[in-house]
Design a protein that fits this description.
Shape: elongated
Number of domains: 6
Structural class: alpha/beta
CATH superfamily of the largest domain: P-loop containing nucleotide triphosphate hydrolases
Number of strands: 60
Strand order of the largest sheet: 27-25-37-36-35-28-34-33-29-32
CATH class of the largest domain: Alpha Beta
CATH topology of the largest domain: Rossmann fold
Radius of gyration: 52 Å
Helix content: 25-40%
Largest sheet: 10 strands, mixed
Oligomer: single chain
Distance between the termini: 98 Å
């Protein structure tokens, strides 16, 4: 049962989990060495586990479980300890609650039995955080004691009386012992999280863009006013009224009769009609005026709605895309989907809000009216006023940008710095740290104002792994020097494209905030900052007190006059005078809330499922233990003649990428490219391992070519599939390697012919069916670095590629890997490589060389690679498996803790604080952890051994060793050998290398058959040692009765260590002329004597004489070291005549010469023409070798004892050392010692009556 310790001292709370079986003692004190550290403690305390009683104790006091324990301390202080068993976690829904009461009372929202606290959580609205009020008891908020009230944010936790409460956005989660908590709140099954499932991984969502309306709006002018009646009523009726008056007067004074009445009637009618018509016109006019007014007002009302709607669209767009600081904080903390929504391709990239004010309407409003009118029209005035009303937006975000030249801020410094912080906050929320990064230049005394930015991923210059803060000389040099190099490279790219219309976008875009220009003035980076560097992907922001102090290249000037008034004076170099009310941080706003919320986010530029960032070999196979690979089943199921597909990596979660080098799939040959650190060697290792896991050693085998020697070859030395390694390919070894490979091809062709097949797939099928007995695996020739190999051994590389092309039907696969393919991958190599694997390469040229696309140059992660097959039949990006990870069988049971302690310095870089970096801690036993590669290889090796899988014959044998000992090649014990009958004179002298026969065997010279031996070499390369070896081998095999030796040492005493041998009849040096002449005379007489003996039986050789006569005649060897000196000797003529005679006639008489010389010309032509066995060790003048053994491509390496001899053809061998000595002095001593032992042994035998030895002879 899990136990939790909670300890309060003063106003602090400490918590830790207890594991009595693993850690029975817990120390509490003020030092870091204690398990719990509290710097305010005056004493150290031990808490011990009593295993018998199963309780914890402090100072003899037993600690009660699930209750408060008060521990008395010095100075009348106390410590409170709770040890609780956490058995239950309950979650309650608080999404609709504005208040929550917690106490031991049944009527409260949450009842905690046995609690001593009375707590109220309350908030003004559901969107606000809770505020805690503690009325009774001690409550700890995030490990600090609450003093009456505190703000509790989402993610905070509370602790009291053994109960822990996690505060969520819409729930609370309580941890306590079982049945201790009850509540009337709705219970949830799981906690609500403000974060998505993949947090902290984050990828951009599709962006919603609200465009500000731009379509022109037209306000039509009112129709023309109706024509007002022009005649007045008086003028219309006046004439008629005069006529009436006149008619009446006439009627009074004269009598006209009916005429008068008729005229009066007509006049009256005219008056009435005129009045009626006039009234009608006036009435119609009024109606028309009213109708015009009404209809236009209705039109304006409709237009007002349209303008309002468009205006609201603009307002909404501005408020949506440019929120205030409070909204930004909220979006950051809830990981809103709009985070990082802006990219370089968006129209508003690096646009930001400076405050609120009036802005011009985004759409044009057209109202056509006459420039001059004599008459005022109220409706036209109304149309004009409507247009004027919507020409600007009131109280909306005022926006500017960093993409149209350097920006300058002037005004009160504290207010300006606040504006820059708002700029940073907005930019960081909406722009990814891959797209925008900040470099901030400020005086050191203002560092505290920018500390909040250190959490922002945008504040680190990722290319140089340093924080972009510049505030003293050290940070300036670190940051700006690196920035200068980056801008220089960008400038070169811009200049290269200057003649084209292609726009270059640089990522990331650097925003440089310069609040202290003094740190910049004398720096070389000002070469770029003295003009607008926007084309290099840099935006500059300057801060000065007044406009006159700003640099001339500033195009936008923003004046923050006071807290309530700001003015954009210039924008893009033009005077605009846009006034606004600057934004400010609300009181109590913590800038770190935003930076800390963004800090954990791992922005995935592609979908998470697409490609993992890393995958180990065993993770790719979805296993933890090597035994789970189930090799038995894999080897039984997979058949190489059907498919060679094996996992190589992942293109997505559980989406495996297979590489299949079957001839009809991705194979048979391929290229791999990757620069240093790209994971090139790792992908090769994982591929080899994957093949070994899936195929039996009789189906797949490897021949590794490691030009620089041994690195990869050593990793796979225990793999049963490994048939050999080719390392250190200098001139001598390259031809040997080719010969071995060609020999393997010839062997395969022979087996094909014997079984009437012409392809490896047919042969392997026959083997699977048991028809043929000898297995033939697919042979993978893998070169880890062929660029240098091709450069230094072009002929070898050409032959290798040609051999692989010929061998495709024979099951030969060639995989060539290089760091830099440019200039190395020629047309022949590329056309013969069906698949290409490209990891990170150095530049686009390298990528184009292998893939014919620049994509591989853009890779950033180790192990990330493109697989291309054929003409883009397959072209995909994936993450290759990594086999170098530590192998831990049960990862869940292991504690993988990095105990190294780092401090993050002022540049954002890690500095190690730990003094002990071994990672061993206090462990007394040091255990080594194998890698997955080692574990899998060991498992396959043990599996093969357990099942007694016989190793295949190796086509490539290791290079000849530099030292070989005679006793290892030809172990002979002279005491036993001397008891045997006389035998032919044969000497094992070294190990011969015949790669064309795939063999290395001891080289035995048949002296009895071939007669004489001459060995040549430059001084110091082993010709004297060769004579020692030959003489010692025949001396061990033949008793002094059967072998006599004459030593003629004309050099530097190379043969003198052998003079103690009982076989040696005499030893002569160059100064002993008289003694040499006696030798000439003696051997001349011996030859005459032996000729007479042969003539008695009419035989031609000593062997025939011995058979005919039954007698045994000893063989005689005349060993001459350094024959070059003969011409300088006084006995030259006589001695050379003797040697000439011996090489002509001596072999049949049982007399043989061994000659060493520095060059062939030291011997007369007649002499060396009669010596059949001629051996050449290393010669400084290599042309001498062809004269001795014939023309050959073989090179004798500059190694002592390395030699060449002509057998059927010139063949290399390593001559053996006569004794197992570490150095020359020890060799002399061992030779003398063995000679003395032989002499003593033979002396004992001669005392028994046998005196037919060399000396008595």
């Amino acid at each position: 049962m899990e136990q939790l310790l909670a300890l309060s001292y003063g106003n602090k709370l400490h918590k830790c989990r207890l594991h009595p079986s693993e850690r029975p003692t817990v120390t509490i004190g003020k030092d870091w060495s204690n398990h719990i550290t509290d710097f305010d403690l005056d004493e150290s305390i031990e808490m011990n586990w009593d295993g018998e009683l199963s309780v914890w104790k402090i100072k003899g006091q037993t600690l009660l479980l699930n209750e408060v324990n008060i521990i008395p301390l010095k100075n009348d202080k106390t410590m409170r300890i709770w040890i609780t068993t956490v058995e239950e976690s309950v979650i309650y829904d608080t999404s609709t609650r504005r208040s929550i009461a917690i106490s031991k009372n049944d009527y409260d929202d949450i009842t905690v039995h046995g609690a001593t606290v009375d707590v109220l959580l309350i908030r003004e609205s559901l969107d606000d955080p809770f505020k805690i009020h503690v009325y009774e008891g001690s409550v700890f908020h995030n490990y600090s004691k609450v003093e009456e009230t505190a703000i509790v944010e989402h993610g905070d936790h509370l602790y009291f009386d053994g109960v822990t409460i996690h505060i969520g956005s819409e729930d609370v989660q309580m941890f306590a012992s079982k049945n201790r908590v009850e509540s009337t709140l709705p219970r949830l099954l799981e906690a609500d999280s403000p974060y998505h499932d993949e947090y902290p991984d984050y990828h951009r969502s599709p962006r919603i863009i609200y465009r500000e309306p731009v379509e022109k709006m037209v306000i039509a002018k009112p129709s023309s006013k109706p024509t007002k009646p022009t005649e007045h009523l008086g003028r219309v009726i006046a004439p008629a009224l005069v006529m009436i008056v006149v008619t009446v007067i006439l009627a009074i004074f004269r009598t006209y009769g009916l005429f008068i009445y008729a005229s009066l009637a007509m006049t009256l009618v005219t008056v009435i009609v005129s009045i009626t018509y006039y009234i009608k016109n006036v009435k119609q006019y009024k109606i028309d005026i009213a109708e015009r007014d009404k209809s236009y007002r209705e039109y304006l009302a409709r237009k007002t709605k349209d303008l309002y709607a468009e205006s609201e669209k603009q307002r909404h767009a501005l408020h949506y895309h440019y929120p205030d600081a409070v909204e930004i904080r909220k979006m950051a903390k809830e990981v809103n989907s709009r985070i990082y929504e802006k990219t370089m391709m968006h129209h508003d990239f690096l646009h930001y809000r400076v405050g609120k004010g009036d802005v011009d309407t985004s759409f044009e409003i057209e109202f056509n009216e006459e420039e001059f009118s004599q008459h005022k029209d109220e409706l036209i005035v109304m149309g004009r006023e409507l247009r004027q009303k919507y020409l600007s937006q009131k109280d909306v975000p005022v926006v500017t940008d960093l993409m149209n030249g350097p920006v300058g801020y002037i005004g009160q410094r504290s207010l300006v710095l606040e504006q820059l912080q708002l700029l940073v906050m907005q930019t960081a929320l909406f722009h990814s740290y891959y797209d925008v990064q900040f470099i901030t230049v400020f005086p050191e005394e203002e560092k505290h104002k920018w500390e909040w930015m250190r959490w922002l991923p945008h504040a680190s210059v990722r290319d140089i792994n340093v924080r972009g803060f510049v505030y003293h000389d050290r940070s300036r040099d670190q940051v700006l020097n690196s920035l200068y190099q980056i801008l220089k490279e960008r400038k070169l790219k811009v200049d290269e494209k200057s003649n084209s219309n292609e726009k270059i976008y640089f990522s990331p875009h650097y925003v440089v905030l310069i609040t202290d220009e003094k740190l910049m003035l004398d720096h070389v980076v000002m070469e770029f900052f003295n003009e607008d560097p926007i084309d290099l992907g840099v935006s500059l922001v300057f801060v000065q007190d007044v406009m006159q102090s700003l640099p001339e290249q500033v195009k936008t000037v923003i004046d923050i006059r006071d807290a309530k008034k700001g003015n954009i004076i210039l924008e893009q170099g033009e005077l605009v005078n846009r006034y606004f009310v600057p934004d400010h941080f609300p009181k109590g706003f913590h800038l770190e809330d935003v930076s800390r919320a963004l800090a954990p986010l791992n922005h995935l530029q592609n979908l998470k499922n697409s490609i993992p960032e890393s995958v180990t070999f065993l993770e790719m196979y979805n296993v933890e233990k090597v035994e789970e690979l189930n090799i038995t089943q894999r080897w039984a199921k997979n058949a190489a003649h059907k498919s060679l597909a094996v996992p190589l990596g992942l293109r997505g979660k559980e989406d495996i990428v297979n590489l299949n080098l079957h001839e009809k799939a991705h194979g048979p040959h391929g290229l791999i490219a990757g620069t240093t650190g790209s994971g090139k060697s790792e992908i090769i290792q994982s591929y080899i391992l994957s093949l070994a896991v899936n195929f039996h050693p009789y189906e797949v085998a490897f021949l590794l070519i490691d030009y620089k020697g041994g690195g990869m070859a050593n990793l796979f030395r225990n793999l049963p599939h490994l048939l050999g390694t080719i390392t250190n390919l200098d001139g001598a070894q390259s031809m040997r390697a080719l010969a071995s490979i060609k020999a393997e091809l010839q062997k395969r062709q022979r087996l094909f012919g014997e079984n009437n097949v012409n392809h490896i797939n047919q042969y392997q099928k026959l083997y699977k069916e048991g028809i043929v007995k000898e297995p033939m695996p697919h042979l993978f020739l893998i070169s880890d670095e062929f660029a240098e190999l091709k450069s230094e051994q072009p002929d070898f590389m050409k032959e290798l590629v040609s051999t692989a092309r010929i061998g495709r039907s024979l099951g030969i696969h060639l995989i060539l890997a290089t760091q830099k393919p440019s200039g190395v991958v020629d047309d022949q190599i590329w056309s013969n490589s069906k698949f290409k694997l490209a990891l990170k390469v150095q530049n686009t040229s390298d990528s184009n060389e292998i893939l014919k696309t620049p994509d591989a140059a853009e890779i950033t992660l180790p192990g990330r690679a493109y697989l291309q097959v054929g003409n883009n039949e397959i072209y995909e990006l994936f993450q290759s498996a990594w086999s170098g990870a530590d192998y831990v069988e049960n990862k869940d049971d292991q504690d993988h803790l990095d105990t190294t302690i780092y401090t993050i310095n002022d540049l954002g870089q890690y500095e190690i604080l730990s003094e002990d970096l071994s990672g061993l801690g206090e462990n007394k036993e040091v255990s080594t952890v194998p890698t997955e590669l080692e574990a899998v290889i060991d498992y396959i090796h043990d599996y093969a051994e357990d099942r007694k899988i016989e190793a295949l014959a190796r086509p490539w044998l290791p290079p000849l060793p530099e030292k070989i000992f005679l006793q290892d090649l030809h172990p002979v014990h002279f005491k036993e050998a001397w008891n045997e009958a006389k035998k032919p004179l044969q000497a094992t002298v070294g190990l011969v290398d015949q790669p064309e026969l795939q063999s290395q065997t001891p080289l035995t010279l048949d002296i009895s058959k071939d007669g004489h031996v001459a060995v040549f070499s430059s001084p110091g390369y082993g010709k004297s040692t060769f004579l020692q070896t030959l003489i010692m081998d025949v001396a061990r095999q033949n008793s002094p009765e059967h072998l006599h030796v004459y030593l003629v040492d004309l050099g530097t005493n190379g043969l003198l260590p052998l003079k103690g041998l009982p076989h040696v009849a005499d030893t002569i040096t160059i100064d002993e002329a008289e003694k040499c002449l006696k030798l000439v005379e003696r051997l001349t007489q011996e030859m005459k004597q032996r000729k007479r003996m042969l003539s008695e039986y009419d035989v031609a050789s000593i062997e025939m004489y011995e058979k005919a006569s039954g007698k045994q005649i000893p063989n005689i060897i005349v060993a001459i070291d350094n024959y070059d000196a003969v011409k300088e000797a006084k006995f030259y003529e006589e001695f050379e005549m003797l040697i000439m005679q011996i090489v002509r006639e001596g072999a049949s008489l049982g007399i043989h010469t061994l000659i060493s010389a520095g060059r062939q010309s030291a011997l007369r032509i007649q002499l060396y023409n009669n010596i059949k066995l001629q051996i050449c060790l290393y010669m400084i003048d290599q042309s001498e070798i062809s004269g001795i053994v014939g023309r050959s491509d073989l090179k004798v390496e500059e190694i002592a004892g390395r030699a060449i001899i002509k057998l059927d053809s010139p063949t290399l061998f390593q001559s053996a050392l006569p004794t197992k000595a570490e150095d020359e002095l020890e060799q002399i001593q061992l030779l003398q010692q063995e000679a003395s032992e032989m002499d003593q042994e033979w002396g004992g035998r001669t005392s028994e009556g046998n005196s037919n030895d060399a000396r008595s002879y």
